Automatic annotation (TrEMBL):
Its main location: mitochondrion. The lineage of its organism: Eukaryota, Viridiplantae, Streptophyta, Embryophyta, Tracheophyta. Keywords: Fatty acid biosynthesis, Fatty acid metabolism, Lipid biosynthesis, Lipid metabolism, Mitochondrion, NADP, Oxidoreductase, Transit peptide. It comes from Cynara cardunculus var. scolymus (Globe artichoke). It catalyses: a 2,3-saturated acyl-[ACP] + NADP(+) = a (2E)-enoyl-[ACP] + NADPH + H(+). This is Enoyl-[acyl-carrier-protein] reductase, mitochondrial. It is an enzyme of class 1 (oxidoreductase).
Length: 342
C-alpha cells in the first residue's frame, strides 16, 4: 500500500517580532525625539527598499540614531552571516520576511553598547547573540528588546557565535527528532558542503553514526570531498558518481540509511531516496536547486517520505559586503559561508 507523509521542517521565525523591529526604525526617519532620550549611534546598514536580486537591490546606507527605550538593548554588531534564507528574503521568495524597506540579515553576534533604563542582567561590553534570530542584523548598531539578546561567553569566536542559532541547531534537531538512531546506523544527505551538512557530519560522527554525503558536480569537488572526510564523513559522492544501476552496492558494510536529509531538491533528492532503506524517512529542509523534488514511483510506494521538513567560514570586512554577497550568491564557485565582520 502506498504510504507517504509530507511534512515540513519549518524555518525559525517570528513575524510579529520582525514587524515590531522594523517599523520603529523606518518610522524614526521623520520623527522628532525628546532631548532626554537615550539614542543609539548612527548605524551603517545593508538596506533594501524593494525585493529583487540582492546584488541589485541592496545598498549600504547610514541610518539615523534610534531611541533606546527602557527595555531595549543597543548592540554594536561584530559579525553576521549571509545565509541562503537571507538571500531569499531579499528576493522576496522566502515565506517569512520583514516588510520592505528593511535591513538584511537574520542572525549575528555583537557587544552591548548601551541599555535602556529597565534592563537588568546585560551591561555595556557583554557579548550577546540575536536569539531567537530576528531580522535586521546586517548593520553596525542594532536596537532591539532585551528578550531578543542572549548573553554568551566573552571568548566565543565571533564567527561561531554569529552562526550558531540557525544551522547547527537545525542539524541537531534533524538528527534527534525524526528517527531514533543508534551508533552504527547511517544517514544519507545531499548538499553536504552546506553549513548544515557539515554540522550533520560532525554531530553524526560524535554519535558513531555513518554518513553518506552527496555533493554537486563542480570545480573543486575533489577538495570538497577531502574537507568533508576530514570532518568525519564516511563516504562522499558527487551526483554524477551516483548514476549507477544499483546505488546500494556502494554502501559496502555501511547499513542502509534509515534517515535522509534533502536541502537541494530535483534529482539530488531522488538520490537521497535511492539510498534510503524501505520505510526510511527523508526530511527536506531546503531547496537550493530551486527545482521540485522528484520521487520515483517505487520510492513513493515502498518508502515513507517525511518530506520537508566545525564548519568552513570566511570572515569578510563589512566594507567588502558586496564581494561577500557575490560569493554567497555562488558567482565565484563553491565558497565557505560568508560572515560579515563589522
Ligand atoms: N528549514 C530550516 O529550518 C532551515 C534551517 C537552516 C538552513 N536551511 C536551509 O538549508 C540549506 C543550507 O543552508 P546553509 O546555510 O547550511 O547553506 P550554505 O552553508 O550557505 O551552503 C549552501 C549550500 O547549497 C549548495 N548549493 C548552492 N546552490 C546550489 C544549486 N543551485 N544546486 C545545488 N546545490 C546548491 C552549496 O553547494 P556548493 O558547496 O557546491 O556551492 C552548499 O552546499 C538552505 O536551503 C537553507 O535555506 C533550512
Amino acid at each position: 500500500m502506498a504510504c507517504a507523509r509530507f511534512l515540513t521542517l519549518k524555518p525559525i521565525h517570528g513575524t510579529s517580532t520582525l514587524s515590531q523591529f522594523h517599523r520603529p526604525r523606518i518610522q524614526t526617519f521623520c520623527k522628532v525625539r525628546a532631548f532626554s532620550a537615550l539614542m543609539s549611534p548612527t548605524s551603517t546598514a545593508v538596506f533594501y527598499e524593494n525585493h529583487g536580486p540582492p546584488d541589485t537591490v541592496t545598498k549600504v546606507i547610514e541610518l539615523p540614531p534610534v531611541e533606546v527605550k527602557e527595555n531595549d538593548v543597543c548592540v554594536k554588531m561584530l559579525a553576521s552571516p549571509i545565509n541562503p534564507s537571507d538571500v531569499n528574503r531579499i528576493e522576496g521568495v522566502y515565506p517569512v520576511r520583514p516588510p520592505v524597506p528593511a535591513v538584511g540579515g537574520y542572525e549575528g553576534v555583537g557587544e552591548v553598547h548601551s541599555v535602556g533604563s529597565a534592563v537588568q542582567g546585560l551591561s555595556p561590553g557583554d557579548l550577546v547573540m540575536a536569539s531567537p534570530p530576528s531580522a535586521g542584523t546586517w548593520q553596525t548598531h542594532v536596537v532591539k528588546d532585551k528578550s531578543l539578546w542572549h548573553k554568551i561567553d566573552r571568548y566565543t569566536p565571533v564567527e561561531y557565535a554569529a552562526t550558531v542559532t540557525i544551522n547547527p541547531l537545525t542539524a541537531l534537531r534533524m538528527i534527534e527528532d525524526y528517527v531514533e538512531l543508534k551508533a552504527g546506523d547511517a544517514i544519507v544527505q545531499n548538499g553536504a558542503t552546506s553549513m548544515v551538512g557539515q554540522c550533520v557530519i560532525q554531530l553524526a560522527k560524535i554519535r558513531g553514526i555513518h554518513t553518506i554525503n552527496i555533493i554537486r558536480d563542480r570545480t573543486g569537488s575533489d577538495e570538497a570531498k577531502e574537507k568533508l572526510k576530514k570532518l568525519g564523513a564516511d563516504e562522499v559522492y558527487t551526483e554524477s558518481q551516483l548514476e549507477v544501476k544499483n546505488i546500494k552496492s556502494l554502501l559496502g558494510n555501511v547499513p542502509e540509511p534509515a534517515l535522509g536529509f534533502n536541502c537541494v531538491g530535483g534529482n539530488a533528492a531522488s538520490l537521497v531516496l535511492k539510498f534510503l532503506r524501505q520505510g526510511g524517512t527523508m526530511v527536506t529542509y531546503g531547496g537550493m536547486a530551486k527545482k521540485p523534488i522528484t520521487v520515483s514511483t517505487s520510492s513513493f510506494i515502498f518508502k515513507v517520505c517525511n518530506q520537508f521538513i566545525i564548519h568552513c567560514m570566511e570572515l569578510v570586512p563589512f566594507s567588502e559586503f558586496h564581494t561577500a554577497l557575490d560569493k554567497a550568491l555562488g558567482k565565484h564557485g563553491s565558497q565557505p559561508k560568508q560572515v560579515i565582520k563589522f
